[in-house]
Records
---
Amino acid sequence: MTTPAINSWQSVQDEVLRRIHNRTWKPGAQIPNETDLAKEFKCGRTTVNRALRELAESGILERKRKSGTRVALHPVSRAVIAVQIVRREIEDRGANYGYALIDKTVDTPPHAVTFAMELAQAEEMLHVRAVHLADGVPYALEDRWISLRTVPQARDFDFVRQSANEWLLENVPYNRATLSILATPASPFEQEYLAVPEQTSILHVERATWQDLGPVTFVTISYQPGHRIISSTTS
Amino acid sequence: MTTPAINSWQSVQDEVLRRIHNRTWKPGAQIPNETDLAKEFKCGRTTVNRALRELAESGILERKRKSGTRVALHPVSRAVIAVQIVRREIEDRGANYGYALIDKTVDTPPHAVTFAMELAQAEEMLHVRAVHLADGVPYALEDRWISLRTVPQARDFDFVRQSANEWLLENVPYNRATLSILATPASPFEQEYLAVPEQTSILHVERATWQDLGPVTFVTISYQPGHRIISSTTS
DNA sequence: ATTTCCGTTATGTGCAGACATAAAGAAAAT
DNA sequence: ATTTTCTTTATGTCTGCACATAACGGAAAT
């Protein structure tokens, strides 16, 4: 009974996963090395390498040079969340997108924002607030600070026709980003513009981005109550 | 002025990213094909391919056969969240882990749970509730339903010493998982066991897993107010 | 016994070359 | 004009081979 030749990295991956789910290879156990697997599957080592590398990236396997590859004991599965512009998020739900600027001012951000942007000193920034609508109903609020030091050209853009969300993505590249998800009671600002009662529980996504030159922007997106962030995990 | 030979896939990736940040290659614009880049960088096409493939996976580039590769116009950046057992989450924060079972019953789950587990018919399941403590203080609540059809052996495990969270990971493999993040006001159950006042805003992570045989488990983890889920995005 | 050095081993990566495959666009047939 | 077919092109993947690199473990020196 010879294996029916597994020769694509996908099928190698499938077979490896099957053996893990099978418990042929139990959590914590070492699996054969790449050369042996390549021989068994009658394929190149490169192919096995790619299959295993991806599984290691997704946290199912743990690999170390010389020691070999083992099945992760407590797999840290990586849930992937697609972060995209709010317009696309709304359009993907089949709704009509609407946008309204609330205000645009130059101001000194609160400490929390300065801290999140990793700045030692507070400095004047552009503060833009806007609401994103789905079929005319408030879908999410955008509360954004833009560094005028890193992005001076933002001062002259009015953000009436196009949201800062999209304008920045199209015009200002970034190197590094962080993302943080949390829940808080609705602030007065959120109560007003999301049209929700006091004490409603709101899901927030905070995102900060940087360029070589320094911080680009810090934004909080506050969603309508009941909003879910959904991800399907790999493997 | 010849380029000083870029010959690792990492350095190719860096150079490509530099050109994107540079705006040498603007959002939406097409970039040279792999063969030409390989020639320019004096490396193999395989190397360029790997560099570009990873950038496409992370959403910075968009690739299509025959059409070529272009810089994404609205990059859907993928934020990766590490989902691991609560004990590790607590220990990683440098706190002492504690665990207490609240109750373990056999019951019919509410519709929402049956639906999330993609079952047409409600069926009896094991319902396990527990609290995870960090330095003796409630850190998160676990409210879990386990399919007795898929995991019959769960009926006889007592979950007093080891949480269902860990027991399942070590003993029951899964194929597919979904993850959903949402915010709600604290339920009476959460008020009691997380020791928080009424109307507190609670961050929930819901997770369902499946095996070939059927659904394995559906769990809601409710975090202490102020909890954040943090991710750093790639690139 | 302890430290230092070195060989072995498994993964990590690079390369050239080949063929597979999707898809755009041109050419041919209707 | 519209549909069908074919050619071309860029990405996707597999292969064998080579060398790089981390790290375990034993041998040698202290």
Note: The mean pLDDT of chain A is 92.
---
Amino acid sequence: MARPSGPSPTDVELQILRVLWNRGPCGVGDIHDQLHRDKGTNYSTTVKMLSVMLTKGLVKRDESQRPHIYRAVWTRARTGKNLLKELTKKVYEGSVSSLVLQALSSSEASQEDIDKIRKILEEMEQRE
Amino acid sequence: MARPSGPSPTDVELQILRVLWNRGPCGVGDIHDQLHRDKGTNYSTTVKMLSVMLTKGLVKRDESQRPHIYRAVWTRARTGKNLLKELTKKVYEGSVSSLVLQALSSSEASQEDIDKIRKILEEMEQRE
DNA sequence: TTGACATGGCGAAACTTTTCGCTATATAAA
DNA sequence: TTTATATAGCGAAAAGTTTCGCCATGTCAA
């Protein structure tokens, strides 16, 4: 059963999620530091966005300590998968492989990546 | 030299572009028909969105005939590529192959797709 | 030409997302 | 305890997107 993962994160929400994915659970201060470096926004903005995300169920927080510790509810992998599916619907009428083809043909994937992809293709064939 | 392709299309803009990509250049009426079917919006909305997109350089129009004929400035492939790159930056710190791996491992691609992808992988190796 | 109808343009409302100022509360140092 | 500083909350402004109402203009048939 697929868990619901709610509405897609907006741009700033993704910026915040990326910090949480990269650093792991942390307080507003750490998140703000990164956002401030990236685009100079105010501390209040970060707090507000986190409260919006809390409402949307994109993050949870541990209030038993100070500062409160935020963590992402959904993994990077799952979120990426959802956004990709959405993008696919919006541009390619739902065909994931069209998009993958596009992505591959225009990227410089390493030999390592290529090998990984081959392995996955094999697995997919055996599944059928 | 890579052509600039401007700001990324918003959701409704993509809906309109999809119509143009699928049907080819056409008038407001045809575009509106589709949008109206999909979500019941008014004719005025379609006209307005097209004028916004004209300003942003996402579409061009031929005014020498009535109705004016709109066409997408960028191809579906190029737009998809850009959006994918953006998504990749926003979720995966810029690694296209992480995203492709995610996409593949969770999709049901056809045997035909799998073969196509293999072919591309081979081409990529020879390029190096 | 005139009336009916499709097409086009424009400003403003509605909605969403992002930003911040101001205030309140907790924490730790003097 | 008092004071200074980090942390949190809230409402509203600002910015971006989408929607529409109203009016103007073009097209075609009677």
Note: The mean pLDDT of chain A is 89.
